[in-house]
């Protein structure tokens, strides 16, 4: 019965947004209340669950998204994004723009958390789209597919790294297997799928659409790439150092602090303020105005993501994800398919890839101990399932929709289908790899 109540709650959310045209943040709050009542959460605890969901998700993301928006706005206004796009187009050509975006997303996405990568690279997508008169969705989906795959499949991202530890898998081997599967998955969900999205009309946020500058006004190539990608370099460096140093080393706490995604973005915006701002003759007041505008433009995005966090917390507090997982545990199917299926259903129901993956891990773990499945492939199978059909209860859905300024329908036809392709092709890749291992 819980699953029926879950479907009713999601239906309420969809109807509020698509039929009644209610603001998504308000719609999330209403549907969270409906879900909590139907699923039996005591009324005196329901408000607390909603507040906890909002606070926990914003606590993880607000620094990253706000600082990322500021950095993205500066990268656009300074001309750095234009310089980067010019270099990429010079290498790949306009005909191969989707491949250029895919490669950028893959390289940057391996060390960078998804939300950081999104807010960092989306301005580049919009700049290329604006400068070369190409559809923004067509340009952006290959890059976002790469970011999504690296987030779900490859350690050191949180969910796959946690699964590696829980299953006793080998981090390096999982990464190698993951790359074998990730590359063809990204190609299919990125450049190939993007060919069908050229007619989707997007109106990206104006804050990231800086007008083209004269060549003499652009920052240098090194400065542009270094400033825009400094978060990547910093995160790679701190990750390597944290793996080399023991927890008892005097520098270990400092490295972990600097390597936190929020601190990475703060340090990066301070650096870019000088390299792309003051050094390029921007006045401090003008730079601060740029940051204020960037923050205003993403305020509603933060609220919508917060609303998704409220619904997610209510569903978690009700125990519905655990009920769904337990109901599927007795299925007589291949362990890799079973793990993928359980994860995919929880992902669609709850909205969180990480929650879906870690919930499934607790159910599937005994199979590893019995030697029924390769633990490295199990990590990848769960990772693929955790990306299945992102929709209304996923913060990533709204992040994409609001940044690209799309309708709900076009968001589903592009973003949700791309995520589904990633999940299905990823599973097929795992099963093919299982034949040879």
Automatic annotation (TrEMBL):
<keyword id="KW-1003">Cell membrane</keyword>
<feature type="transmembrane region" description="Helical">
    <location>
        <begin position="174"/>
        <end position="197"/>
    </location>
</feature>
<keyword id="KW-0472">Membrane</keyword>
<feature type="transmembrane region" description="Helical">
    <location>
        <begin position="337"/>
        <end position="365"/>
    </location>
</feature>
<feature type="transmembrane region" description="Helical">
    <location>
        <begin position="261"/>
        <end position="278"/>
    </location>
</feature>
<keyword id="KW-1133">Transmembrane helix</keyword>
<feature type="transmembrane region" description="Helical">
    <location>
        <begin position="377"/>
        <end position="400"/>
    </location>
</feature>
<feature type="transmembrane region" description="Helical">
    <location>
        <begin position="30"/>
        <end position="50"/>
    </location>
</feature>
<feature type="transmembrane region" description="Helical">
    <location>
        <begin position="134"/>
        <end position="154"/>
    </location>
</feature>
<feature type="transmembrane region" description="Helical">
    <location>
        <begin position="96"/>
        <end position="122"/>
    </location>
</feature>
<feature type="transmembrane region" description="Helical">
    <location>
        <begin position="218"/>
        <end position="241"/>
    </location>
</feature>
<feature type="transmembrane region" description="Helical">
    <location>
        <begin position="290"/>
        <end position="311"/>
    </location>
</feature>
<dbReference type="InterPro" id="IPR003474">
    <property type="entry name" value="Glcn_transporter"/>
</dbReference>
<dbReference type="Pfam" id="PF02447">
    <property type="entry name" value="GntP_permease"/>
</dbReference>
<dbReference type="GO" id="GO:0015128">
    <property type="term" value="F:gluconate transmembrane transporter activity"/>
</dbReference>
<comment type="similarity">
    <text>Belongs to the GntP permease family.</text>
</comment>
<keyword id="KW-0813">Transport</keyword>
<feature type="transmembrane region" description="Helical">
    <location>
        <begin position="57"/>
        <end position="76"/>
    </location>
</feature>
<keyword id="KW-0812">Transmembrane</keyword>
<protein>
    <submittedName>
        <fullName>Gnt-I system</fullName>
    </submittedName>
</protein>
<dbReference type="GO" id="GO:0005886">
    <property type="term" value="C:plasma membrane"/>
</dbReference>
<feature type="transmembrane region" description="Helical">
    <location>
        <begin position="412"/>
        <end position="436"/>
    </location>
</feature>
